[in-house]
Design goal:
Blueprint lengths: L1 E6 L13 H4 L2 H4 L2 E5 L8 H11 L6 E4 L10 H10 L3 E2 L3 E7 L2 E8 L5 E2 L2 E2 L6 H26 L4 E6 L22 H10 L3 E4 L8 E3 L5 E4 L2 H4 L4 E5 L25
Parallel strand pairs: 1-2, 2-3, 3-4, 6-9, 9-10, 10-12
Antiparallel strand pairs: 1-13, 5-6, 7-8, 11-12
Helix pairs in contact: 3-4, 5-6
The structure holds fe (ii) ion (2 copies).
The site of one fe (ii) ion has 7 residues, from loops.
Length: 263
């Protein structure tokens, strides 16, 4: 079993030192790793990143993070990542990392993600260059996530977790105004997860959303934005089952229920 602690949208800044540290210092009693799902700062400054670093440096479990849109606000996202990395945080963007938890190889693939909306109600790469660039940003992020998940599979990970800031499914947005769903996430992220395969997915960003959701492919999704979970971190237990052989293909007759098009 892998015990995953996760929280996003902690939005720390000078003045919030020590807010989470006491709870985080108890992590090894509850979890094997801590995932930070972005929006760790308010305006993405290095001063704010140093506050985050102070909360997570030297914790008793590995800390793995993605950035959120707030962490990009000052165009200092690389510096923010650097401050976090110096504090021992593994910051992912279109990349993955593998840790060993009592003999289980646990892989985490991460990307911030981006906007665009959900199937049937989404933006498309049509028309103006700005619109194409908007969707290309989402598509590039989703492609990076898929490659990272594929890489973890090739690396022999027993468990794979997808970590994003933006939401991959609309389920976990319930409570947010419908009008802003396209700015809260994209179905392309879920497609990447379902295409590459993952055992669990965690995101933030939707402060008014709901904790529980699922991709079309059956991957459990959790919105861990701190205003949603209402505590310093949520803990999820992933039970790792030994790989089973694939189910045998159904007999050809079972595939003939639907008449072929045109007769
Ligand atoms: Fe946020
Ligand atoms: Fe956000």
């Amino acid at each position: 079993m892998t015990r995953i602690a996760a929280v996003g949208d902690i939005h720390l800044a000078p003045g919030s030192e020590g807010l989470l540290r006491p709870a985080f210092e108890t992590l090894d009693r509850h979890a094997d790793l801590l995932l930070l799902a972005g929006d760790l700062t308010r305006h993405g400054t290095e001063a704010e990143a140093r506050v985050v670093a102070g909360e997570v440096a030297g914790l008793p479990v590995p800390v793995i993070a993605v950035l959120g849109n707030h962490d990009y606000q000052s165009d200092r996202q690389d510096a923010v990542s650097g401050v976090l990395a110096e504090a021992g945080v593994t910051v992912l963007e279109g990349s993955g990392t593998r840790i060993d938890v009592d003999g289980t190889a646990v892989g985490v693939a991460g990307t911030k993600g981006f906007c665009g909306g959900f199937a049937g109600r989404c933006a498309s790469d049509f028309g103006e260059p700005e619109m194409k660039a908007f969707i290309r940003t989402t598509r590039d992020s989703a492609d990076g996530l898929r490659r990272a998940l594929d890489g973890l599979a090739e690396d022999g990970c027993d468990v794979r977790i997808a970590l994003t800031h933006f939401a991959p499914v609309p389920d976990t947005l319930s409570g947010e105004p419908l009008e802003i769903y396209p700015f809260l996430g994209s179905y392309l992220l879920a497609e990447a997860m379902d295409g590459a395969g993952a055992d669990f997915a965690v995101h933030g960003h939707a402060h008014l959303g709901t904790e529980h959701g699922m991709t079309a492919g059956g991957i459990r999704v959790r919105n861990v934005a701190m205003p949603v979970i209402g505590r310093a971190f949520a803990v999820y237990h992933l039970h790792h089952e030994p790989l089973r052989p694939a189910a045998p293909a159904p007999p050809a007759a079972a595939l003939r229920h639907a008449p072929a098009p045109g007769g």
